[in-house]
Write a structure and sequence with these properties.
2 domains, alpha+beta
Amino acid sequence: MGLFRKRNPPAIPKNQQLICSAPRPSGKHHAGELPPQLETEIYRKLRYAVPILDAAISKIIRLTGCFQLVSGDASMQKSLDHFVKNVPVGPAMYSLQSFADTYLDSILTCGNGLGEICIDPKTRTIAALACGDPSQIIIAPSETAGQCRFFYPPKDSESKPEPLPHPERILFTAMSPPPGEIRGVSLLRGLPALSDILLKIYECIGQNYERSGNVRYAVVYKPGNDPSDRAYAGERARTIAREWSEGMAAAAAGEVRDFVCAGDVEIKVIGADNQLMSTEVPVRQLLEQMISKLSIPPFLLGLNWSSTERMSSQQADILTSELEYYRRLLSPMLCKIGETFLRLSGSDASVDIEWSNISLKDETELAAARLHNAQAQQIEAELAKETN
């Protein structure tokens, strides 16, 4: 008899899988493989999305300090000073200092600085200085050593790049270009991946507080075994909900009400048992990586991390060396602008640049060094007199 015959399980079709994997999008950033326009756009959006990066770059620009152009011809110094203070920069700024700040901002963000000396065709003098977007210009090596060629990007696939007129008026600076490359490297290179993780953490914090930060209540009415309680359970639940809503509205208006109800009523806070994940450690690790890339002491950005006085002094010295490097990037372009002004004014004098001391501490250390040198010279002079 086949009443208790074992039934075989249904066969699984060969083309049907019980387990499959779902691909997950990767958040890898390959900024170095992107076109210059897209890479520059990523860095600009990064400064907008992560305020600490924007604050660090702004502080670097301000800490770089001010300067003065010194003419080799003393008779042209007054005219040169007037030019430095009053030269138009773009449509709404003046002074060579404003041009240097904007130019350095482009160097730090894009890795390249691009400017132009605008000449008035009637007076043959410098009419203004302009800063441009280096990602919008094609830069190619020139046949002459130490020079570059600049082209407008082609309008379509059939046209060819057009060279910029008057390339001698173009100012271009690249920060730390790789070997064999013309374009420089942004100070923010390597940070998009870390910033992506940091923004995800902040987004999750916001979502968690939207879900559980705003306290919500679960009011549960449990009818008893009495048939009348079960018959009017829906009506009593609606009454409890109405009174609860009125009580919450009164509390928002500053009025305190007590909730009184007969029967088995349970009130709980939704999400009270679920603790929010601590994000202090991962956020600090990410910020440490970013700040180490920018070479900014944490206390300058308002981060109250534990540090000793000696550590703070060493961080300040490291920042000073970084600022000196940025000054070396700006000095040739600023001297070129000053010499162009003197040439158009009929002078063949050279121009030197004098930077201000980076901080008051430098002033104090220089003054102390001068005092010690003077005391040493005085002691040496007295010893020389005694020996004679």
